[in-house]
Model the fold of this input.
Amino acid sequence: MTGRPATPPPGRNSIDGPLTTEHIRAVTEQITSSVGLDSTGAYLIKFTINAVVALPAAGAVLRIAGSAPTRARIPSVIMVAQWFAEHDIPAIRLWSDIHQPLEAGHHQATLWKMAPPGGPAPTPTDLARILKTIHSFSDSPNIPTWAPLETMRRRIADATHIDQSTVDLLKRQLDSVERDMPLLDKERLLPPGVIHGDAHMGNLIPAPDGPIICDFDSTNIGPREWDLTPAALGAIRFGYGPTVHNELSTAYGVDVTTWSGFPVLRRLRELQLVTSVIPLLEANPNLRPQWELRISTLLDIDPEQPWTPFAKASNPSPF
Done:
């Protein structure tokens, strides 16, 4: 961003519309200028559900919501971050002394402290330790109850850029999973409570005092078995092999794949990983090839076709 003006051209229209890469740059410049942070050397870490922008000169990270559903989650994200800080949970921290969320046009963002460099690479044991810490609290912040089907149906209903046959396919899949949801209540492995909601290794950040967890968009009150599902699915869908799942299960003390409810959670997770980027397919077309692969292999005709994480598939353009 070096050499670019500190603020975008006057007028809201310069940053209205979908969150494209150009809008990410303009939103970043406007927000950093408004709060007095140095945007020199800013770069885009990833662009999936959020655009995550590193601000190394300021020691900060900006997370810009990529769609209306993600913007709607921001108040909950802020509450979760505050609750994690109050309970000293190893997690990223909000930037202090400013009112959040921050706005630029109709776009909204949150500002976070950048994790200091250093520390070993995160391990599945680290993820298990953080999850056990989160799951150990009986109190909870005032955040929504886990409702993945409702969220997915809303994304599908709002989609205007995918064909009707795909919409119908996704609706049928969601209806099928909904019929099986009562199985989750028949035999619990864990008591319900606060869940991270997207607990995979990619959401751990190295830090000098040990890894910390990020990304609270999916944090809810719900079944804690859900937090053990991403690692299990990673062994099936992302070609990670059994190591991550086995180490996580051993350290946590529970193997979710042995549970009668796991097939339902697996299908829910797969559908979540298909529908999550639907609002961003037009703004970030680099996501579409991987999304189309996931759609084509979603059915049981190819249940173990490897997928690539959207964070890698998106290949965002650098500033």
